[in-house]
Amino acid sequence: MANEAYPCPCDIGHRIEYGGLGHEVQVEHIKAYLTKSPVDAGKAVVVIQDIFGWQLPNTRYMADMIAGNGYTTIVPDFFVGQEPWHPSGDWSTFPEWLKTRNARKIDKEFDAVLKYLKQQCHAKRIGVVGFCWGGTAVHHLMLKHPELRAGVSVYGIIKDAEDVYGLKNPTLFIFAENDAVIPLEQVSLLTQKLKEHCKVEYQIKTFSGQTHGFVHRKRRLFA
Q1: Nearest C-alpha neighbor of 6 from the set 138, 135, 101, 94
Q2: From the candidates 50, 64, 77, 179, which is the catalytic residue?
């Protein structure tokens, strides 16, 4: 997503052609894409979208790949029916668009997803991974939900505030060295603050030569 202090375009990369192995379900008031693991091991991962929405094939591919490793995965529509950002959209309107899609105000929807995974999928161990906008959401959730076993925040924007470093469970932060959206100075600040305040395990990994959006873009997956 864009830097809160200086919003700028996010690169969608190549939208892959991918049908998916899962199916869409209704989770209370939101829709979601669900893929069951071939082995019912009681493990699940919530995959959180970037600004391009829960139906982006690239994100569903990532969810299916995780499912193939023994986890039931679910990609909820955390925009709750609101339109995702369109790659050809006018970036000058992005800050206003973002106001109605706050990555730190998804607790109601996330609680519904947790309930669904526990009751309908018999999940006992649940983790979360998010990209871009979803990476910010993961950071928020790891501060609020101690039942989450682990979280992975992938190039999520960093907000410097006193209450964002008390992680409840192990969290991995992934960044790109050449990210025009998230400067390395912000990554360094996060590293410093977590070292000072965090009481659980965490890791910060910056990938050399990469740019924002590199993890689940076609040019990286299939290059």
Answers
A1: 94
A2: 179
- Determine the CATH number of domain 23-221: 3.40.50.1820
In the annotation, is 29 catalytic?
no
8-state DSSP, 14: P
Q: Tens digits of per-residue pLDDT, 92-126?
A: 999 999 999 999 999 999 999 999 999 999 999 99
CB 120 within 8 A of CB 107: no
Supply the DSSP symbol for 34. E
Summarised one tens digit per residue, pLDDT across range 47-91 is: 999 999 999 999 999 999 999 999 999 999 999 999 999 988 898
Structure tokens at 51: 């600004």
Please give the structure tokens belonging to residue 89.
Answer: 């959209």
For residue 140, indicate whether it is catalytic.
Answer: no
Active-site hit among 10, 64, 139, 212? 212
Whether 212 is a known active-site residue: answer yes
State the catalytic residue, choosing from 132, 139, 140, 216. 132
* Per-domain residue ranges of the chain: 23-221
